[in-house]
Amino acid sequence: MESWLAMVGQLPTEDPSARMRALRTLEALGAGVLREGAYVLPDTPGNRAAFEALGTDIGASGGTVHVLHVTASSPGQDEAFKRLFDRSTRYEDLVKIVESLRIGFGHSDPAAIARVLLKQRRDFEAIAALDFFPTPAKAHAQQAIAAADEAIRQLYFSQAPTYVGPGEKLHGRTWATRKPLSADRLASAWLVRRFVDPEAKMLWLDERGAPPAGAIAFGYDGAHFAPSELRVTYEQIVAQLQLGAGGALAKIGNIVHFLEARGEAVPEAAGVQTVLQGAVRRARSDDELLAEAEKTFDLLYEAYDEPQQSGST
Length: 313
Hints:
Elements: E1 3-10, H1 16-29, E2 32-35, E3 38-42, H2 45-60, E4 64-71, H3 75-83, H4 88-100, H5 110-129, H6 136-159, E5 174-178, H7 183-195, E6 201-205, E7 216-217, H8 233-240, H9 248-261, H10 269-282, H11 286-305
Parallel strand pairs: 5-6, 5-7
Antiparallel strand pairs: 1-3, 1-4, 2-3
Helix pairs in contact: 1-2, 4-5, 4-6, 5-6, 7-8, 7-11, 9-10, 9-11, 10-11
């Protein structure tokens, strides 16, 4: 059976704000409610430290609590404790929202749908962080989010141009660039796989290597998509394939441009450079390096693609 922590006592009564603070902390911890003034959590070092810190705060505010180590008296009671932490209903509510996004497919802007899905993904992470005893509902929610994400990606791809030149399709192709894999080449590969063709195969050529017949070359002089005096390769792909003149992709382009060609400073560039340099040191292959870089650019895109909150005046 599980080992449990119980917090038992009297919350502050003379200080309403302190009482509300304690209740909000208990909710944030995901504590199960046995009755008023009695709360339970699985016995872990983190939960023990949180309960003890909360007990100190409650005591300083005029309340009285005790943190106890308890064991269920029977398997039935143990299961009853676990049911206090059943997050199935919250997962099911989240799945309903995620699945309802399909109503907007073909009608709403994919970026707007992606923003809603991003919020649901963060809500899922918040629920999962307090899901001490996962049920199949968690896996179902994960699958729903993954399916919606893939569907949204397909919406982006269906709106992207499918030709480099007359009669030249982009989907189902090999894309080739040369080593070393700079920020521009990594960002360009991410851009292609996320917004042009999710099944694109990436080929890493030697410094002076030539692409095989039929491959789409990028990231070096003479390639289909090559850097110019004004644009790095990433910006060339965005412009030539009309992937978006502003917004998140443009902001990422500003970072990549600064890392490759300097120019106007971008505050986030130093952090991105540090992350990519770390990935270069850790990666055991070029494909593994791209996978790490894709995570970085995914996070940047999601952060930049969120609607800006207007400040109060």
